[in-house]
Amino acid sequence: MAGRRAPSLESIEAFLLALDAGSFQEAAEQIALSPSAFSRRIQTLEAFVGRSLFDRSGPTPQITAAGRAYGREIESSMANIVRATNQLRDQPAGDHLRVITSHALAVGWLMPRLGELHSSIGITINLEIGRGSARLRSGEVDLAIWGGARDAPDYASDPLVTLSGVPIASKRLADGREAPKAFKDLRAHRLLRAKNATDLWAGWLDGVGESAGSYQYSDVENTHLAYEGAASGLGVAIAVPMLADRIIAEGRVDPCFDECIAVPIGYRLIYAQDKLRRRSDVKQFKEWLRKEAETSASNFQAWAGASTRKAVKNLEVLS
User: Is 234 exposed, middle or buried (0-12, 13-18, 19+ CB in 10 A)?
Assistant: First the structure.
């Protein structure tokens, strides 16, 4: 816009995230952008101020002296904008909750259930997609639902469910072969591995006494794409309750064999502030989440089949 005197808040937000993150990709994941889209926001800001804020001559962008000085000047102002905005849009407890989670859990599990949540409990969820504790710290969200030890370890949290997994594939792969029918067949197939959940295959293989490094992988952006790849015959993925609910319901994949093993992913409800635990609407939401997770676990066991029930005992909904 002609005569504009300030850069867009989107470009400022991207710039400040890039200051704290180890890479543009890591920062981009926090606001659910592709690295290229994130980089364009930084470039827009640089064009506006007429200075290079990052040195791109090396393998990863490095902040310039001008960029570091600019960040010190604007960081407190952005924090004030975020706080003022959150105060303005905050509603009384019981009206709505601001929740952030991963793309795979949001699309494949949580969003289809939000209507039932509102009708049964009267709670509306303002749902955001992303990772990283920046939005918990800023007060932009009340709660997060994430799995893994690296997600917001310094914040108060309550366990929702621990998970077990089973290898899945389409009945016939894209290269014409049948899906693996026994554990020994896995080495001949490509394992689909989500970049944001590499521990999934590693943990499963460790559970059967195998080294993850001796298998061949295809890395995809997230778990949702791993499941889509398995359904399309591109390889073998690990299905777990909740994340795999949607692909299982569509009938596009089958369990390869009866090895359902505990994996190092357990979903937790994470609080931006510990005092949120005492709010009645948050307590209701937590109990609703646990009940829905238990239902998903039970349905997963039934889908995996009678032959896997003994192995599935590792899947435990936490009380």
Answer: buried
